[in-house]
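Table 4 source record.
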Amino acid sequence: MTDSCEKVLIVGSGPAGLTAAIYAARADLSPLMIEGMERGGQLMLTTDVENYPGFPDGIMGPELMDNMRKQAERFGTRIVSSDVTQVDFGAYPFKVWVNDDLYHAESVIISTGASARWLGVPGEERLRGYGVSACATCDGFFFRDKELAVVGGGDSAMEEALFLTKFASKVTIIHRRDEFRASKIMTHRALDHPKIEVIWDTTVEEVLGDKEVTGLRLKNVKTGEETEFAVDGLFLAIGHTPNTRVFGDQLELDDAGYIVVHDGTRTSVEGVFAAGDVVDQTYRQAITAAGMGCQAAIDAERWLDEQV
């Protein structure tokens, strides 16, 4: 049973959490990070990262996160490789449990991120980062003059498809219904684009390919007919789920389950801060998450100074 009181306790280890750790450690706050079993966040599933400043030749996602982790540890961040199982923000100092281990903290920074929703079909997981992606902004550049498919029917799917037309020779939106749920303006933009086609009433049953995506096995939901569809890449745009399950009864969340923040990174509980994709539904980029992690560490440092 661990019963220590931390100045700053960070939950989550993606770009937001690790940047918060670097800044908190350099502020001599000796942060403790509960990094989670899936350390490093979504970038651990990304191969080449070419839009993170400072790496003109790009960098592998796992390498970038490993570098951030080493930098945080260099300045004194202590890391626990496990998941937070329970929190109590109703009393002070705050209580955070990792299974049977209890930690007390004067301030908490939550950076647990959001998980992309996946189809759960054969071939999808094996080919993530090798033609299967949930982020057009991150990976679209690698598919210049390729034929791509986007799964989804909301505004995010339209946005992904339109963005991909900058690189791809053709983008096919695959939707399980016979109409989009996207806004009218986004629907018209997608349907009117010369590079975009739509396959209606259809689901993806399998992602085909050995070392990279070569096609999809599709099923018409009305006729049951299955066909193979040649494509060079598959982009999922069926939403994200914020990783806020353990905080649901402790903090104010919005209708989609994201943590609500105000005045920077402050949550509904004084002394608890949140940063990165657990807050951000709009940008969801490593660089914006890192920026928020910096903000959260500075906000926490200033809040702790005010308590003296």
